[in-house]
């Protein structure tokens, strides 16, 4: 299976941006490590990042057309974007998507407690840093992820 690993705004700044919250690992490191982890489990990862909502929506459409699963850390768009939610609803009806956050958004400002993406996600992982992505890959690596 192909998994689209999608990152939203400002996540290209990982490693430099608020390391006390997000750690010192760069986005490239995360993408490489998650791709390696997935490959060892027979999965292909296509990793992309954009600061632009419309671009993310178009990539989700591409995933829907190709039947790909999605692991998404949408950054701040998690808390604002109905457009991304509507796009991901198509993935929910197909291979499914998992929402990941590096930080524990529930221990932070109140505006981060609401996610437009969470309801239709197979699951949400927050606060485990890079481990959250590995857990999401594990989920998609099982033949019947509901079991
Ligand atoms: C984040 C949490 C969001 O609230 C924030 O806007 C981000 C990163 C995380 O990975 O912890 O950009 O998605």
From TrEMBL:
Quaternary structure, from the entry: Homododecamer.
The organism's taxonomic lineage, starting at the top: Bacteria, Bacillati, Actinomycetota, Actinomycetes, Mycobacteriales
Residues flagged as site, Transition state stabilizer: 17
Reaction catalysed by this enzyme: 3-dehydroquinate = 3-dehydroshikimate + H2O
Pathway stated in the Swiss-Prot or TrEMBL entry: Metabolic intermediate biosynthesis; chorismate biosynthesis; chorismate from D-erythrose 4-phosphate and phosphoenolpyruvate: step 3/7
Binding site for substrate: 73, 79, 86, 102-103, 112
Stated family: Belongs to the type-II 3-dehydroquinase family.
Active-site residues, record numbering mapped to chain: 22, 101
Protein's organism: Corynebacterium incognita
A GO BP entry: amino acid biosynthetic process
GO molecular function, one term: 3-dehydroquinate dehydratase activity
CDD domains with a match to the protein in the record: DHQase_II
Function: Catalyzes a trans-dehydration via an enolate intermediate.
UniProt protein name: 3-dehydroquinate dehydratase
Entry keywords, A to Z: Amino-acid biosynthesis, Aromatic amino acid biosynthesis, Lyase
Organism superkingdom: Bacteria
Gene symbol of the encoding locus: aroQ
EC number from the UniProt entry: 4.2.1.10
InterPro entries per the UniProt record, alphabetical: DHquinase_II (IPR001874), DHquinase_II_CS (IPR018509), DHquinase_II_sf (IPR036441)
Coiled-coil blocks: none
């Amino acid at each position: 299976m192909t998994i689209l690993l999608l990152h939203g705004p400002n996540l290209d700044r990982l490693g430099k941006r608020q390391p006390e919250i997000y750690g010192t690992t760069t986005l490239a490191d995360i993408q490489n490590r998650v791709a390696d982890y997935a490959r060892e489990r027979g999965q292909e990862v296509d990793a992309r990042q954009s600061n632009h909502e419309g671009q993310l929506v178009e990539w989700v459409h591409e995933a829907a057309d190709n039947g790909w699963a999605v692991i998404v850390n949408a950054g701040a768009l998690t808390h604002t974007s109905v457009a991304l939610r509507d796009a991901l609803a198509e993935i929910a009806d197909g291979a499914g998507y998992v929402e990941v956050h590096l930080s524990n958004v529930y221990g932070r400002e109140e505006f981060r407690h609401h996610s437009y993406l969470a309801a239709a996600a197979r699951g949400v992982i927050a606060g485990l840093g890079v481990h959250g992505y590995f857990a999401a890959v594990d989920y998609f690596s099982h033949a019947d992820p509901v079991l």
